[in-house]
Amino acid sequence: MSWSGGKDSALALHHALRNPDLAVTHLLTSVNAHHERVSMHGVRLALLEAQAERIALPLTQLRLPEMPSMADYDQALLATLAGLHQQGVRRAIYGDIFLEDLRAYREQQLARVPLQGDFPLWQRGSLEVLEEFWDLGFQAIVVCVNDCHLDASFCGRLLDRDFIRDLPPGVDPCGENGEYHSFVFDAPYFSRPIPVVRGEVVRRTYQSPTGNSGGADDPFAAGFWFCDLLPG
Length: 232
Prior knowledge:
The structure is a single chain. The two termini are about 25 Å apart. This protein is an alpha/beta fold. It contains six helices and nine strands; from the N terminus they run H-E-E-H-E-H-E-H-E-H-E-H-E-E-E. It has a single domain (about 5-230), classed as Rossmann fold, CATH 3.40.50. Mean pLDDT is about 95; it is low at about 210-220. The longest helix has 17 residues, at about 70-85. Strands 7-6-9-8 form a four-stranded antiparallel beta sheet, covered by helices on one side. The protein has a three-stranded mixed beta sheet with strand order 2-1-3, with helices on both faces. Strands 4-5 form a two-stranded parallel ribbon.
């Protein structure tokens, strides 16, 4: 299971666990090894480990440098997936919803191992995904927002219907275009909820891996607001 710790991967895992044709054996998460946090989400490693402990699945970390190039990422991913393949893993499960180019990229990488990709949420409506998420009893906090789309006031909020109603026009309710990321602190398959305390909200920008200093055409020019969650 490609596990970010956020709502989409959490709901995809729910469907995978209920699928009699699948036997989920590992969680795989990209981790910023410099900061010991989940890549892009900024969640502390201790909270990621708490999720894995409550799911009762082993956690495999794809450990990356602070600003990996795509070549660095691809090399690390293929090595990790090849190791899982040697252990008998034959499928990789993702929480993607509608980004065609991202799915194509994943399937191209998987074919090199080889593994088959499964996408339980594919082509479902974003609001439909969220309603199922809430109806099943999942709970999540928004831990990162892209300030091209959302301001700091959205960071650290509970991911609930009020949050969705407050989103500006053009923002996907699920944040599928990278508008926001979340941390799931309770799920139907958790042995118990994860207590968390909201810490400070900080803004971070990142130097482009190409060495560019930023600009309108630089995808890394955007800033991100992060809410630092602390174990409760």
